[in-house]
């Protein structure tokens, strides 16, 4: 979001309807989303695939499934669709690597929760195409959706791909506790 802002794609205004209740509700909601999706995509199936087929196949298979699981969400169209699918697949690889480095779902759940909650209920952007009321209200400045993410949210911004790649590189170099 900071990069979108620096590029002139969005201005953030305080939402007059903001409330602590909204922030707490978002934390509650996205905790369950993160627990569900991480258990589904980095839980038993992923772990058995890693053991049975190797890390590479497991990462690619679950990255494809994670991206396809978000296919057709609201706001996913044109260039946004391509960028969003790539970002979602890279995000899945990042979360898979977070599991592999810790051998625990805690880090992937925390990263997933933090990303969605900050993006939606703190900054007021869409999360995977779904609108949420946040502490801030993003005002788009007429830049292309591939830069701002548009209605789908920052996940479909070209900057999200860069963030994913940097975080993957960091986790790749980090030896973890496993």
Ordered list of secondary-structure elements with their pairings:
Blueprint: H1 2-6, E1 10-14, H2 20-42, H3 44-53, H4 55-69, H5 79-102, H6 106-122, E2 136-140, H7 145-148, H8 158-173
Antiparallel strand pairs: 1-2
Keywords summarizing the entry:
178 residues, mainly alpha, two-stranded antiparallel ribbon, 64% helix, 6% strand, globular
Main sheet summary: 2 strands, antiparallel
Number of strands: 2
Unreliable segments of 5+ consecutive residues: none
* Strand composition percent: 5-15%
Distance between the termini: 32 Å
Query: What is the CA-atom radius of gyration, in angstroms?
Result: 16 Å
Order of helices and strands: HEHHHHHEHH
The helix tally amounts to 8
The gross shape turns out to be globular
Indicate the mean pLDDT: 94
Q: In terms of structural class, how would the helical and strand content be classed?
A: mainly alpha
Helicity level:
55-70%
Strand order of the largest sheet: 1-2
